[in-house]
Write a structure and sequence with these properties.
Elements: E1 23-25, H1 42-52, E2 54-56, E3 73-77, E4 80-84, E5 88-92, E6 98-102, H2 105-112, H3 118-126, H4 133-141, E7 146-148
Parallel strand pairs: 1-6
Antiparallel strand pairs: 2-7, 3-4, 5-6
Helix pairs in contact: 1-2
InterPro entries: DUF7919
Pfam families: DUF7919
Protein name: DUF7919 domain-containing protein
Length: about 160
């Protein structure tokens, strides 16, 4: 499954089922795209990890990342290993802005040093985040379903066909 690539701040249009007024894209990266880079702080990684543990807009397949040599993306933090690339996350900003990012964002920041926009980072720092019940209430008010992220287990390793 190929992932769409969008410029930061552009209107969200990946799926009409998950659109909400004021939703903009953040972190939809692809091979050959230029993007700002800066080594992340532990605080930023921790904030993003909170969102990574909960999936919004789950897809039917897993995105095979194209920024790395390995196809699957498994990230581990605090003893929890998650399979990324099959869902999105939402971060609520100020003044009605909603940021939509692939759940691969944690990997992009940690490994590729992608530097998210400052307004997005402020939203991570200032707005209610999962597992705060108010965060989930806001998702529900938009008609967005959520679930816990896919926990990676060794049984997930199996032969697969990768599209060329």
């Amino acid at each position: 499954m190929d992932m769409a690539h969008f410029q930061d701040g552009s209107d969200y249009c990946y799926s009409e089922y998950f659109e909400a007024p004021g939703t903009v894209n953040v972190g939809w990266l692809g091979n050959g795209m230029s993007f700002p880079r800066y080594p992340p702080s532990e605080e930023l990684l921790s904030l993003i990890w909170q969102y990574t543990q909960f999936s919004v807009a789950r897809a039917r397949g897993v995105h095979y990342r194209d920024l790395c040599t390995s196809a699957r993306c498994v990230e581990e933090r605090d003893g929890l290993a998650l399979l990324l690339g099959a869902a999105e996350m939402r971060v609520f900003g100020s003044e009605g802005v909603i940021y939509a990012a692939p759940n691969m964002l944690y990997h992009y920041v940690r490994v590729h040093h992608y530097q998210p926009p400052e307004a997005f980072v402020r939203a991570l720092q200032e707005q209610p985040a999962p597992p705060d019940p108010f965060y989930f209430e806001r998702l529900s008010a938009l008609g967005l379903e959520w679930s816990e992220a896919l926990v990676y287990t060794p049984s997930m390793i199996r032969p697969r066909l990768r599209p060329d």
